């Protein structure tokens, strides 16, 4: 088996993984005031947050290119690949997953699977890295898919945003609720539900209490297993570092890496957002 992994630029991956020849990444363009950007091509995460702060309206994201995915899949057989696995952002936040399912049986002599990851960002990146680990230890395609199913079913992320207006513009919160929340200093904790849709998990008074609650939720969710827990932030490194320290102080005895929300997810969550994600180590 020679396996190609395809993902999209909502993913958070280490530079070493991004350089792999058997990894293919579909760009997700971001439109800021009428100009299109692709992170890693003509935009950095830092520059994105600067441009978003100066923009006259909220940036917009597009879906990955189906034509580009078709092009990649069409080239794989000639490159010697026998299998392709597409790990893309959750169907709960993008229609891309539904739009590509017809491709699974379109390419002769290439076995293709597009599982719904129900997640994005750092947990999506860990799924990609896990696939390469399993492949290198000799797992076959069916075994890799079974292990992915386990990860998907036990992965989530809990999110605290700094500005409720991004949620309103993205259709995640009513304008009245946002006004009330801002007046009362309510911090809604969001999460990826079992279908990979971002919903309000609960509303907490004050950021300090919401931060403490984030740690409680993730501690409880990961107490009976071995998990990769990641702190993810939208250009808020100090807030992320403090949250990581709270996790360590709570008794979690493992590595807790820091990751960033790039332009794709940052568009919808806004600057200053922080999240705790967890995914089982399989």
Top keywords for this entry?
282 residues; 4-stranded parallel sheet; 39% helix
Secondary structure layout plus pairing:
Blueprint: E1 3-8, H1 15-18, E2 23-26, E3 30-32, E4 35-37, H2 45-54, E5 60-61, H3 66-76, E6 83-86, H4 96-100, E7 111-113, H5 121-136, H6 141-153, E8 156-160, H7 164-169, H8 175-184, E9 186-192, E10 198-205, H9 207-221, E11 227-233, H10 237-249, E12 258-260, H11 263-269, E13 274-280
Parallel strand pairs: 1-2, 1-6, 6-7, 11-12
Antiparallel strand pairs: 3-4, 3-5, 8-9, 8-13, 9-10, 11-13
Helix pairs in contact: 5-6
Flag low-confidence runs.
174-179
Structural class: alpha/beta
Q: What would the average pLDDT be, to the nearest integer?
A: 90
Number of strands: 13
Portion of residues in beta strands equals 15-25%
From the alpha-carbon coordinates, what is the Rg to the nearest angstrom? 19 Å
Main β-sheet, in a few words? 6 strands, mixed
**Individual helix count:** 11
Taken from the alpha-carbon principal axes, the silhouette is globular
Determine the N-to-C terminus distance.
21 Å
Q: What are the secondary-structure elements, in order, as H or E?
A: EHEEEHEHEHEHHEHHEEHEHEHE
> In which range does the helix fraction lie?
25-40%
Oligomer: single chain
Strand order of the largest sheet: 10-9-8-13-11-12
């Amino acid at each position: 088996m020679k396996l190609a992994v395809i993902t999209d630029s909502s993913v958070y991956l280490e530079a070493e993984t991004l350089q792999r020849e058997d990894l293919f990444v579909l760009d997700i363009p971001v439109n800021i005031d009428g100009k299109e950007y692709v992170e890693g091509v003509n935009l950095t995460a830092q520059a994105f947050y600067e441009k978003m702060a100066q923009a006259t309206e909220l940036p917009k994201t597009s879906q990955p290119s189906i034509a580009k995915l078709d092009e990649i899949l069409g080239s794989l057989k000639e490159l010697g690949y026998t299998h392709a696995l597409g790990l893309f952002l959750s169907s709960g936040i993008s229609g891309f997953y539904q739009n590509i399912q017809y491709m699974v049986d379109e390419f002769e002599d290439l076995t293709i699977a597009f599982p719904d990851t129900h997640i994005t960002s750092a947990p999506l990146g860990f799924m990609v890295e896990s696939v390469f680990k399993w492949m290198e230890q000799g797992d076959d395609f069916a075994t890799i898919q079974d292990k992915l199913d386990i990860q998907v079913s036990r992965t989530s992320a809990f999110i605290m945003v700094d500005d409720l207006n991004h949620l309103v513009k993205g259709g995640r919160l009513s304008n009245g609720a946002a006004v009330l929340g801002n007046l009362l200093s309510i911090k809604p904790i969001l999460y990826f539900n079992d279908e990979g849709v971002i919903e309000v998990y609960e509303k907490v008074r004050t950021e300090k209490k919401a931060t403490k609650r984030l740690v409680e939720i993730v501690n409880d969710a990961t107490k009976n297993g071995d998990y990769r827990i990641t702190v993810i932030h939208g250009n808020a490194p100090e807030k992320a570092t403090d949250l990581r320290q709270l996790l360590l102080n709570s008794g979690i005895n493992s590595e807790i890496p820091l990751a960033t929300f790039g332009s794709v997810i940052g568009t919808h969550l806004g600057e200053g957002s922080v999240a705790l994600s967890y995914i089982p180590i399989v």
